[in-house]
Amino acid sequence: MELLERDIPLAELDEALRQATAGNGQVVLISGEAGIGKSSLVGRFARRPQQVERVLWGACDALFSPRPLGPLHDIAAQTGGELASLLRAETNRPAIFTACLNELQSRPAIVVFEDIHWADEATLDLLKFLGRRIQRTPALLLATYRDDELGPQHPLRLLLGDLATSTATRRLALTPLSVAAVRLLAGERHVDVEALHQQTGGNPFYVTEVLATGQGGVPPTVRDAVLARVARLSLSGRAVLNAAAVIGARIEPWLLAEVTQAEAGAVDESLELGILRAQGETLAFRHELARQALLDAIPPHQCAFLNQALLDALKASPATRNDVTRLAHHAAAAGNPEAVLEYAPVAAKAAAAASAHCEAAALYALALRYAAHLAPIDLAPLLESYANECFLIAQLDEGIAARRQAYELWRELNNLLKQGENLAHLTVLLITAGQNAEAEQTSKAAIELLEQLPPGRELALAYRVRATLYLVSRDCRQAITLAERALALAQRFGDMAVQATAHNAIGTAWLFVDYQHGCEYLEQRLVVAREAGLEARVSTIYANLGSGSGELYQFTQARRYLAEGIAHATERDLDHNHLYMLAWLALTQLHLGHWAEAASVAAELLQRPNVSAISRIVGLVALGRLRSRRGDPTAQAALDEALKMAIQTDTIQRLAPVRSARAEAAWLDGNRQQALEEARAVYDLAVSKQHPWFTGELAFWRWRAGDKVDVPGWTAAPFALHMAGDWQAAAAAWGALGCPYEQARALADGDSEAQIAALAIFERLGARPMAEAVRHKLQVAGVQTIPRGPRTATRENPFGLTNRQVEILDLLTQNLTNAEIAARLHISPKTVDHHVSAVLAKLDVPSREEAAELARRHPDL
Question: Can you give the pLDDT at residue 793?
């Protein structure tokens, strides 16, 4: 097992050994819970080559009747001589103790007594004897013990008290691993590191065993260790511990007593054994994994009985009868359908109000598992609420299925109003899932149904959703007109939710008609939504501001909106918007020249579950463009997947970015025909929508591929200027937008001085294909002073790191200081400073910690 975050304890042991070998013997008491790594620490320390030659090792065992002086027998087997003879002859203790002391005085040694919490009385006496005399020896005595198993009356406490006054005694308490260390151990495994740390409490044994199994649940090794430990409890103690496991992470003593009717002594057993611990006025398991192991071992009928008893006790107490989430949990575990349906929907509604949308969805799903027998009029609202939460947390398949089921139930009841409303909501889910053709049909059906009835809030909703369909097709004027119609209806009937979403649609459409007006409009709505507590609407406004700004190449603005929006969405379980903004952040960082960050964000997004089609398309475009600009042959796979999904949406909003990225990739690969085909595929559609940036880039790649194209006057200026031959103005325009790659692309079409400047930018970014093309152009022109490019190894590294910089980065991941890195590589600390600065610049990160984190997530660095 990799030894992490133990540099300070090892340094402490080094100092103790230095004192001992100088003739001032030391005792080090090494404490920590089971699995914390006491033996691993001592083993690593003892095996280090600079230590003394003699290491004597003895261990105490968890036997029903511990053997007297067990560890000393182990040590005597290694030393032989007088000590072994005396032990065989079973001579009295004073003689044996004196012989042991003489052995330690003879020459330097590291002496290990493991697990002294299991020591017999004679061994504890020996340790007391040696502890008082150790200073007159060249020995380092290491004694390990589990501090979580020491009850108030444990015999070891007397020894610890006796040794506390000795100046030769040091205490070394090992602490759990941090989240950063757990992340290091996890490596490239797709695990939730924060959850793993919480589940294991940072215990190294638990962490490594969970990672080793690669599956959910409790690893067999952990289960066996936990059950072996609790086997030492009395029957009453085990019954109480089982009840505590069922109660949960926080255990109220009154509730435990109410359910078990046990005396306090039965609880004390688990406290003394270290499985439970006191936390203020409550109790808690030391490790959640141990609680799970106990839960798994409780027979199902006993578990159901305990949960029902807990449910009854919680309902009866004024302190807990309103904790509906907890009541719903125990009702489900008890197999009590009536109670689940009583508490789960109420708990879900409260969770949603608190922006805990993942919890709300889970609670609605729990209720629905017991709701099959409900009448349609009662079941349909449950399905609608569940679908709402599924949309917010990006569980689109579940949300679509729930909306369809709710629609069918209302159809059975011949309720046209509710049918139309559910079709409108279903349309939004289908748009998000990239199923735009079906969304069109569903939206039309909703409006046709609702226009048969007197106008109401449901028709306002249907109009607003239809406006969204116009918007994603970039028919912005139509979107504004219909959204304003929806807004008027919503205001007439006092529907605040539809008003907010209609305003959002209007403002977003204005972004593409008049960018500044659109920003001002949406920022005003942001203030209103915040004041009204409409957190989901706030998140959507941020998402539209960020993605809209990115689509219009206002990347500096986009990055600000996206950063604020991601923080807002993350805190409120708004996963759909969070993931969509992550995708746009990856594309934004790519265009701003922050390629390391773009790669990191895109990788994070694409590894996540429940990523909607529209988010995945943007993430794949970011990744595909980045790879093609670096010359990575895997770019095509990402762009092929993006095209397949974009074709399904059949909207310019998705198709144009994908086709442009594919055209660029083909051109960089030298395939002009494919580049031309990709650029022509949706060019006419982009022109028909009067989208200056989509039109501009598609026209640019047609031009690059040798096609003749007359661009409209409203085409985005940087592209138009470049195609017109004004590379200087194009480069300046790209520079003003903060897009270094595009700036260098324009400079590459200029004179030799401009081409040299372009080469520097391409090489800084790691844009190998363009750098090679510009270098070749300069050579053909006979330019003599072409800057030497990076070495082969540097070019092959995705971030342009040299071999030495890769070494430096690897040592940064080990949390070494510059001085420690210098000693490891036999170079000066000043040289390390320069290398670290270069690494941070190439990775485009502000700190060594972020560089190390990036390296851990991307082993190809």
Answer: 47
